[in-house]
Design goal:
By secondary structure, the protein is mostly helical. It has a single domain, classed as Growth Hormone, Chain: A. Helix content is 77%, strand content 0%. The protein is globular, with a radius of gyration of 20 Å.
Length: 404
């Protein structure tokens, strides 16, 4: 590939922000508003889970992005859908009777978000140099989590100080502005000389060959386990009252500051993943996430603990997400990148989805303390299992083969 076709890894940060903004509004602003409208934490976690489940289905439309149109065109289509659904959420009445309609709109909004992320993942695979993919993964997650902070924090602040319609309009305008960076990236066209049937068959063979590689199969199993899922971040605004934290503090901490802190964590995580190795970083960061989660469960339930705990959780989540992306890029290779990357992301988001439901269920049956302790314990146990298996694989020299 022509060296001039490669991009600076930090470009990825800006074009991922719109999807993060949409997710942040759904996971931070919306839960806070719903719990103040009479919704239970469990029902809120259900709505958030439905939205997050869109990522589980991303692999279904991955081939569509690989086979049709160009990456830039798909990005713009996804962006416009993101903005439209964000505005729809803002103009939908928040009533318990309207739960089903709200859940449907939330789901569609996150499907739209995946259609902006799919071309971005392909750009990372094809427009970023191999020795900079860790940094690209860090910037990808920095944009995602930074966008979550912006969409959640600014969204909540604008909603509580003005109204939800103003929040939607401002966030939509910001999304459009950030997306303009896509114009600085050379577009990638799909291969027009191949038929859809032939290409899908080749993709299927490529995915099967990928799964047959021991280290890739290990990665697939590892990312499905509840290691550093960050699921509690979906409920911070809904359970903030347990720490006696006011709305403005929640908006600032779970939103803007968490976004910045997690973005720093992502960049740091990408840097470390390039130097320590993807698997070692993933499991190491998973331990850090579990320890921070457990510590927050055991400390006194006061506003200062909430602030410190949420920010530490955000930083460790940034580390984890960077390692997650680096591991997936390693397993993906370059051929049919959008399809394979999206398939792995779908699997990786499984733990995020089911742990959000588990957290909400444990909270309503017990309390925040038991919710956090359970998340930490499951994370540590999963890391221990992975380390044991990984050592066995190393002893049998099963980690040497990689994918093209």
């Amino acid at each position: 590939m022509d060296q001039h076709s490669f991009i600076k890894p930090y470009y990825i940060f800006f074009i991922v922000l719109p999807a993060g903004i949409s997710l942040g509004f759904v996971t931070i602003t919306l839960p806070y508003l719903l719990t103040h409208k009479g919704f239970t934490v469990e029902s809120v976690s259900g709505i958030v889970t439905i939205g997050a489940s869109a990522n589980l289905l991303r692999f279904l439309w991955g081939p569509v992005v690989d086979l049709t149109l160009s990456l830039r065109k798909w990005f713009w289509m996804g962006l416009l859908a993101c903005i439209a659904t964000l505005l729809m959420i803002c103009f939908t009445p928040f009533t318990v009777k309207g739960t089903v309609l709200l859940a449907i709109i939330v789901f569609i909004s996150q499907v739209a978000g995946t259609f902006t992320l799919l071309p971005v993942s392909a750009f990372m695979a094809k427009r970023v140099e191999s020795n900079k993919k860790g940094m690209a993964g860090g910037w990808f997650q920095a944009g995602n989590l930074g966008g979550v902070g912006l969409g959640g924090g600014a969204g909540l602040w604008l909603t509580t100080h003005y109204n939800v319609a103003i929040a939607g309009i401002v966030l939509s305008a910001a999304s459009l502005l950030f997306a303009m960076v896509i114009l600085m990236i050379e577009d990638v066209q799909h291969e027009k000389n191949k038929t859809v049937a032939t290409e899908i068959a080749e993709m299927g063979k490529d995915i099967i060959s990928m799964v047959k590689i021991p280290v890739v199969l290990f990665i697939i199993i590892m990312i499905c386990l509840p290691i550093g899922t960050g699921a509690a971040s979906n409920l911070w605004s809904a359970i903030a009252a347990d720490w006696k934290t006011d709305a403005d503090t929640v908006a600032l901490v779970t939103g803007l500051i968490s976004g910045l802190v997690s973005a720093v964590g992502c960049v740091a995580g990408g840097f470390l993943a390039d130097r320590w190795g993807n698997l070692k970083s993933y499991l190491g960061f998973g331990i850090i996430c579990a320890l921070i989660t457990g510590a927050m469960a055991l400390f006194p339930y006061q506003p200062n603990v909430y602030i410190t705990g949420v920010l530490a959780y955000a930083f460790s989540g940034g580390l984890m997400n960077a390692a997650f992306t680096a591991v997936l890029l390693f397993a993906t290779g370059k051929k049919n990148a959008a399809t394979k990357f999206s398939a792995l992301v779908s699997l990786g988001n499984l733990s995020f989805v089911y742990m959000t439901s588990v957290d909400g269920l444990i909270h309503d049956k017990h309390n925040s303390k038991y919710m956090l302790m359970a998340e930490a314990a499951l994370g540590l146990l999963s890391v221990l299992v992975c380390i044991i298996v990984l050592n066995q694989m190393k002893a049998k020299k099963m980690l040497l083969q990689t994918i093209d």
